[in-house]
Amino acid sequence: GPKFRPEDRRIMDHAARDLAATMPDPGLPVGAKAPDFVLPNAFGKTRRLTDLISDGPVVLVFYRGAWCPYCNLQLRGLRETLPYIEQEGAQLVAITPQTPDKSREQVQKDGYPFEILSDLDDRVMKEYRLFFEVPSDLSEVYEQRLSLDLAEYNGEGRYVLPVPATC
């Protein structure tokens, strides 16, 4: 794995403390109505939450992107449990800030049979109270130690992530 210097760890810890302080209780309150949205899927087709809900319950999963190993573990686990979700009449929908092209690559590589939607203007992450901007010093650590440029996945100038969540 990457070799993080003490300064890198300080930056990561500081960013985590700041996020915890500014978002002590991320996400919608229990019982809140889920805000409607229209987002493109991995193949460019738009999906509206109200249309998806008309077919039954929807499990929304907010994840960071194809680059995130923890998110990929979660999505693989959800793929394995998908029959149980569908048995209950529900469908699984993942939301990410990454571009549809990156999501399409991910779907083709990993064979995800559920929708992956791209929140390209951050509106949905903000409405669901899961949005945060990655501090520039943390972004530099990502680039230097992980060779990860978030803008390569999210689009030019977009150094944003969701707090991972399931709704």
Quick overview of this protein structure:
The protein is α/β, with parallel strands linked by helices and 167 residues long.
Structure description:
This protein is an alpha/beta fold. It has helices at 6-22, 49-53, 69-87, 100-110, 123-127, 136-146, 150-154, and strands spanning 38-40, 46-48, 58-62, 91-96, 115-118, 131-133, 160-162, 165-166. It has a 4-stranded mixed beta sheet with strand order 5-4-3-8. Strands 1-2 form a two-stranded antiparallel sheet. A two-stranded antiparallel sheet has the order 6-7. Strand 3, helix 3 (69-87) and strand 4 form a beta-alpha-beta unit. The chain starts with 5 loop residues before the first helix and ends with a strand.
List descriptors.
about 170 residues, alpha/beta, two-stranded antiparallel sheet, four-stranded mixed beta sheet, about 15% strand, about 45% helix, globular, 7 helices
**Alpha plus pi helix count:** 7
The ordered H/E elements are: HEEHEHEHEHEHHEE
Give the mean pLDDT.
95
Shape by Cα distribution: globular
Radius of gyration of CA atoms, rounded to a whole number:
16 Å
Layout of secondary structure:
Layout: H1 6-22, E1 38-40, E2 46-48, H2 49-53, E3 58-62, H3 69-87, E4 91-96, H4 100-110, E5 115-118, H5 123-127, E6 131-133, H6 136-146, H7 150-154, E7 160-162, E8 165-166
Parallel strand pairs: 3-4, 4-5
Antiparallel strand pairs: 1-2, 3-8, 6-7
